[in-house]
Amino acid sequence: MAKPTQAHLSRTLKRNEYQAIKQRTKDQMEYYMGAKLIEVGVNPKSAIYRWSLEIKNNQEIWTYSAYWGDSKEQLLSGKMPLTGTELIDCARANAAQGLEITAQLCGYQNDINQFQEALQEAGNKTGITIESLGDLLTKTQNNRRQKGHEVAPDSLSSL
User: Fold this and answer.
1) How far, in Å, CA of 122 to CA of 116, rounded?
2) pTM exceeding 0.85
3) Who has the most CB within 10 Å: 10, 57, 111, 144?
């Protein structure tokens, strides 16, 4: 019997849940996944992780997946990139990590152009306008990515 080379953990949250509760749940999922990998004899640092987010009515279904061995190689090879709603879900969940990492996690290796084209095509098929990866970030994620303004005195002697 072949040894497993991937694991998945899902949680369902309310869309209007406090962001702190969502973040705590995601942190717990990451911890549990690492513990499970150690339990089955896989070094958590050798795995690659992918978030996916599915929105159904007023719920969010977050899935945290770990890939190692053959699954990791296949995921990063670019041979089977995600398409359609799976691509949108993966891109939405990983968008905060940046364009290059999100493209890799969605199976497009370093082919950013192909990733963006596939994402726009998937959006068109589902009726979502996706100009860039930033369109998939939630308002909270966008606020975290924006740079703040520096507040400082005009000079060292003047407050």
Assistant:
1) 10
2) no
3) 111
